[in-house]
Amino acid sequence: MWTTTRIGPAPFLAVDHAGSGPLCVFLHGIGGNRRNWHDNLPAFAAHFHAVALDNRGYGDSDDYDGPLDYADFAADVVRVIDHFGAARAHLVGLSMGGRVAAEVFARFPKRVDRLVLADTHLGFANLSDAERAEFVRLRRDPLLAGREPRDIAEPVARSLSGPNITPEAFGKLVDSISRLHKESYIKTIESSVANDRADLYSPITVPTLVVVGSHDPLTPPAMAREIAARIAGARLHVIEDAGHLSNIEQPEAFDRVVLEFLRSL
């Protein structure tokens, strides 16, 4: 179905990849890992060399020393592109992965072919102080108090889900959050709020699709419309009956609209 590879040098990065053709790299959210894309990889592998990446500090990728800057995540994506011998790649990012994908374009524009920004945040600078504090509190404070990711998995998953999420999809979200590396996750939360580019989207010049679940409680359709409005020529698609993890809650609808975009001339 797919092959798992570890890409060096340190920190080594774990990827699952399948198929052949143009390179398409999938980037997970702050509570995710490459497993989040397992339902999607087969559909994309029929047309692309599809690669799902564990960010540093996530899944089977190595943890790392020191604080995190989004520049680290962006450079890691380029390492993956280099490893597979591609000049450029399509980047499909969900939530934090969308911001990482946009960061790759900001730093390495010639390495990006097309962008898909799914359920992606406009930027923490656009939230109120209370909203930023709640985002951090829900995820970081229980861990600093001694709890483990599995202890917060269910309430966090519930806070991200659409109202009609299936038990199977909800179980995948809970499993994803339960697998987090505690210290790396805390550093990523802090970096997500601190390393915020107010101008992350307006400089994008490659073809871009913005996707959002109709019931996304964290990055709702209104936010997606604002992101799309900032990118010249961007397309917007709302996936019905999906929450924040639209690719997990509605995988067939997600695959259909993203494949149509990536395969269009």
Counting copies of identical and different chains, the oligomeric state is: single chain
Sheet bearing the most strands, described? 8 strands, mixed
What portion of the residues fall into strands of 2 or more residues? 15-25%
CATH class, named Alpha Beta
Write down the domain tally.
Answer: 1
CATH superfamily: Alpha/Beta hydrolase fold, catalytic domain
What overall geometry do the principal axes of the alpha carbons give?
globular
Instruction: Report strand order across the widest sheet.
Output: 1-2-4-3-5-6-7-8
**Span between N and C termini?**
28 Å
Task: Name the helix and strand elements from N-terminus to C-terminus, one letter apiece.
Answer: EEEHEHEHEHHHHEHEHH
What is the number of helical segments per DSSP (H or I, 4+ residues)? 10
Please state the average pLDDT score.
94
User: Under CATH, the topology is which?
Assistant: Rossmann fold
* Known CATH architecture: 3-Layer(aba) Sandwich
Task: Give the structural class.
Answer: alpha/beta
Cα-based radius of gyration, to the nearest Å:
17 Å
Low-confidence runs of at least 5 consecutive residues:
none
Q: Write down how many β-strands occur, each being a DSSP E stretch of 2 or more residues.
A: 8
